[in-house]
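I am still getting used to backbone structure tokens and would like to learn alongside you. Label the sequence line and the structure token line clearly, so we can match residues to local backbone shapes. Go ahead whenever you are ready, and we will take it from there:
>
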Amino acid sequence: MTPADQLLAHRGTGSPVVTALRGWTGRQVAVAAAASIAIALVIGIATVLIPNPIFGRDIPPVWWNYPVWILTSILSGMLLATYIAGEDDGSPRTRRFGIVGTALAWFAVGCPVCNKIALLALGYSGAITWFAPLQPVLAIGALALTGIALVWRLRGQVACRTGVGR
């Protein structure tokens, strides 16, 4: 049974998101896992959520940085895997949402005074006073944008199945 046949077999049996995920090929699952790990490593090392000798952090991470980092990495990896089937819905909207969501996660979990953009725009005290309290909002935005982009892509795999598995 081809992946396209699997999608048709699951079509109409429930949520389009679940139907699309059931139709994923082994290659898509492998790409989602590898991309999630790669994104987690890049964000985790650069923001020092993973302690390393390359980067430093003046302000220690807070408890919510870790779930946001992991969830955004998983959602971004899954979103990237939706492009592996060779099907593109032609909508740049999902790509933009995914890219913006991942970038927001970077700013959300990073050290507020280590972020050069925030530091240049607000100064050290401004970064602590203004940017640090904004980071939870950025985290919610990152998760929402990445999640919306993933749901749109998965729904598109069921609604417009041309090209899947080809």
Remarks:
- The first helix runs from residue 3 to 10.
- The helical segments are 3-10, 16-22, 26-46, 65-81, 92-109, 116-159.
- The mean pLDDT is 83.
